[in-house]
Write a structure and sequence with these properties.
11 strands; four-stranded mixed beta sheet; 4 helices; Trypsin Inhibitor V, Chain A; 3 domains; three-stranded mixed beta sheet; about 25% strand; alpha+beta; about 190 residues
Amino acid sequence: MSLIQFLKSKTFLKHLVLALLVLIVLTFLMLKWLNISTNHGEFIEVPMLTGKTLDVVKIEIDDNDLQMVVQDSANYNPNYPKFSVIEQSPEAGSLVKENRKIYLTLNPSGYRKVGVPNIIRRTFRQAKPTIEALGFQVGNITYANDIGKDEVLEIKYKGEKITPGTLLEITSKIDLVLGNGNRSQIP
């Protein structure tokens, strides 16, 4: 029997039709299995988590069959409680699948600490922008007898003298003692 006669035979055509039917049935079953196993068309709405503490967030995440991943803390935001969520991804109201990871950014316990710059013997005009650029605030200004007018003589924090390099939280108020331009009186 030649190849052309074999391709025209009833046996070959029966097997070809049978193979196509099996392929169609397997494809149909595979698609149905994928729809069921991936929960096709079923979504969970992401809850609003910003402003809530980690304990409350854990309960909400578990109730909604989601997972949470805590990312690094951001800069301290005084508008939110300590260790609360200040950012989430995906956003609240988004539709996601079951067991989706929700990425959370937490509010740290306070402002980060920065070293006080060395501004001793610099003029107030030079010292103020340096202090403010680091996130500190200029507090009370007092004057002492010194020939250097408006030169920084001492740095104080909460009434105590501090040295350059001391770590303070950002937004701390730093008090300055400046020279008044007068020579000190020798008794």
